[in-house]
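Title: Prediction job returns without error message
Component: structure pipeline
Severity: low
Priority: P3
Assignee: unassigned

Description:
Job completed but the reporter wants confirmation the result is attached to the right record. Sequence as submitted:
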Amino acid sequence: MFQGILIDKDDSGYRATLQEINDDQLPEGDVTVRVAYSTLNFKDGLAITGSSPVVRKFPMVPGIDLAGTVEVSGHPDYKVGDQVVLNGWGVGEGHWGGLAQKARLNGDWLIPLPREFTPAQAMAIGTAGYTAMLSILALEHNGVSPEQGDVLVTGANGGVGSFAIALLSKLGYRVVASTGRTSEHDYLKQLGASEIIDRATLSEPGKPLAKERWAAVIDSVGSHTLANACASTKANGTVAACGLAQGMDFPASVAPFILRGVTLAGINSVTQSKAKRVLAWNRLAKDLDFALLPLISHEIGLSEAIEAAPRLLAGQLRGRVVVDVNR
């Protein structure tokens, strides 16, 4: 038996509860992991509250991230006692995820936990930091460098935004952070933001082409914010789109792409190759200032995760929420 959050849906409604789960209820997989830490992401908040249909089958254990120790393995890459980390692969949506003390998974979804990280540190980073690094890799792939100009980071107070600012600043970029929370300006400055703008300047319908302001963008917001960010990107700049907090729509024109040669790079953090995942985590180990992790993240117990989910969706929680599944 182990503890976990189980989401169910039947004639009596949709509900998420913390309960005892039998080992024989675990789904199929060739690696069983004793989970140490998981996280509470935006998608997990949607799953737990049922406010968006992200869960594809029931019952479901949410949690798109996990870090822990291999307990049973039938996979050639892993043996009992190995420490591993997982991000994505539909875990927490179509396959039981990390918000439980055990997980049984496809070993191909795992990567070894880099020795630079403890499991708690890896989950402080989680999908958010991993996605931020994938976005930076996309900018670098397109030749973006600090001397070309500012980089805009939207959704700056969220997990992806927080890590994007910290990583870009350490890499030498001048970062412009977009946020709607004036109370968080000091936090963003501590992460390395050089300039802070009100998200309202980007979140309303704008012109197809606007004044050139930044060499690149990391956008986790979507909708009008993404359209306006593209419209203000300098010639031959790159916009990495990795989120949809404002919406899935993209009310834009082709003008920035045709008239300025702007590149819109989509960031898929869910099904990246193992080589790309290992590269991203190795770069995180090298380029992230670990001293910022306590500023970006805070820890809760598994018993607090259900109550925290609606607060996360309401934008009331800053940065990353790390979940100690053993308390």
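Comment from assignee: result matches the submitted record. The first helix runs from residue 42 to 49.
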